[in-house]
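Retro notes - structure team

What went well: the batch runner handled both jobs without manual restarts.
What didn't: labels got mixed up in the shared folder, which is why I'm recording both outputs here explicitly, each with its sequence directly above its tokens.

Job 1
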Amino acid sequence: MAGSLLLCTAAVLLLLAPGGAIPPPEEAARMARFVLHNCDWGALATLSAQEGLRGRPFANIFSLSDGPPGPRSGSGVPYLYLTDMEISVQDLEINSNASLTVSLAQTPYCKKHRYDPQNPLCAHIIFCGSIVKVNDSEAGIAKKALFSRHPEMESWPKDHNWFFAKFNITNIWVLDYFGGLKIVTPEEYYNVKP
């Protein structure tokens, strides 16, 4: 409980702190980085491999992190902590393609401005790509990113064979203002200063 309160307080301070202000709508790549870094979870959509749902879209919530909390500390890489026991991970074993949606609706920002989660001003980002296990050299980065935001993960049952993964981004859509989606390339996304 105290950890959740601390993370929520950190998120509020981040959104109000100098350098933590929301980017303007004309800076779509920065907006994408900002939204991902300020979100602790997202909706991951897979193509189901489950009996009765095979081939149909299936969305599930996952905790994620692109780095420890704080302005300008995110890598832009969405890291996840997964187990093969999870239904969506079973889908990913058949087809690793997925989409990931993150929204400022989970932060204090939209409530403060009284934006409905569907209002474009309550920015959300849609990433398309695939989920890949991280290699040994990247596992430490993923662990620090995830456990700094989700400390309870460290105590999750070891017999579930948890592993670190990342969302390998191939396409990015930003909805942060009226007038439709903005397309950001992965190159623009990773090259911008958050």
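Job 2
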Amino acid sequence: MDLCHVPATREKGWYLELMAPNVKGPNYAWLDPSRLYCHPQGLQDCVADLLQPFQGDAIDMVAGIDAMGFILGAAAAATLQKGFLAIRKAGHLCVQTVAQPYSDYSGREKVMEVRTDAISPGLRVLLVDQWVETGGTMRAAIELVERLGGVVAGVAAICMENSEGGKWIQEHYKCSHCVPPRLQPHFDQH
């Protein structure tokens, strides 16, 4: 799809066609959404679709998960006119942090951290990432927010797979993603 072309009718998820399949092998994610971010209307519609379920909800801050969640998270924060908090992989913040170990979608053990001075008790945080595959990364972010006394106002991602971890997140938190139900099985079976 041309990066300037906008379809005459824009159903939810039309911009998913902008994503590209993995051509580099098993060490990479199976699908790359970064081309979607290059399309002005695609990015706007993606963010609008992610935020639609939270219309009228109290959200004090948006947090994006390192690294691709920074793109959607910052766009969502700007749209909502809220602050943006980066939840980082360990070792990147030079301030006081709290850390949480986790296993990512590939099964690698990692550590995530967040600055301790950004979340006060009761602060309602919308967590945003590009993709939720196994749920390990998002669950670590949830743990960090809640450990600092924040409230997870919701979880948003382009896709939330129906993995065990993805289902757990959807059962316990208000969630939003962009994949229409008719396409969800294709995304779950990659």
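One thing worth noting from job 2: The chain has six helices and nine strands.
We'll revisit the folder naming next retro.
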